[in-house]
Design a protein that fits this description.
The chain is mainly beta and 319 residues long. Helix content is 2%, strand content 41%. A hairpin with a 4-residue loop joins strand 26 and strand 27. 52% of the residues are buried.
Amino acid sequence: MSTFKEIRGQLIKSLSSDPSPATAGDMWYNSTSQTLKGVIETGSWASGGNLGTARSYLAGAVNGTQTAGLAFGGANPSTSNKGETEEYDGSSWAEQTNLSTARRMLAGAGTQTSGLAFGGVAGPGPQNATEEYNGSSWTGGGNLTNAKNALGGCGLQTAGLAFGGFPGPVDTTEEYGGTSWTSGGALGTARRELTGAGLQDAALAFGGDGAKTSTEEYGGTSWTAGGNLNVGRVFMGGSGTQTAGLAFGGNAPPASASTELYNGTAWSTSGNMVSARYALAGGGTQASALAFGGDDTASITNATEEFTFATATKTFTTS
């Protein structure tokens, strides 16, 4: 069995009072209370307000917040491709103006008042259409260089990033400057059905068909390998940044409730979602995220969940 020193590179210190500040993974012996203490990470999901329209393979504003979310596009069995757009205020969703092109398996970026939708499937095949959201309606933006669906996306409306996708899978990356897309550095591994988080010059790509556990980091010109996911999946939800990312749900198969936290080097497990599902969307930060829609293999859902992550000081006892 590994010792604490082998894991953390330091011995457990004896202190007369709890240190401040303390970070996750720290451990010490409090000589005053004669107790062994440490800081642990805690993360949990709770149910939020339901989407007005149940759907899967939808997208969201990945850099939105838990109290200002944006959901758009997707599909359900009754009407196939959807153009519905909904805004979340922290408790309920309100329907807004539809996308100009109803579609599924699209990608999203930006915020609730400055969103970006691109790619997807509408009609006979993959789309290259890009749309920009101003908080009330959508307008056309510059088309992707290559039509694709089941792609990853992240960034802002004026600095978006699109990568991977189908037909393929492909390894291509495109950068959006607010009016047009230009080529970026290729992914290390071509893949589709992947997930993205972060910004155009500090992005994460993880999971996907052909690389279910693989993570890659983008620095603005090229991708480099990051730490592998613990549970390989496709069609996950994602949020956060390159150094504080969050991955949730997905299809392993079967539908997964797994949640993982990325610290810039490695993924660690956190509290499971209330309901396992894939083809969902999300947004927010690692500490405060939003997950909505998806498919639990039995039905398409309108369920929303809210994630809260924090650190806590724990007293360790024998049992």
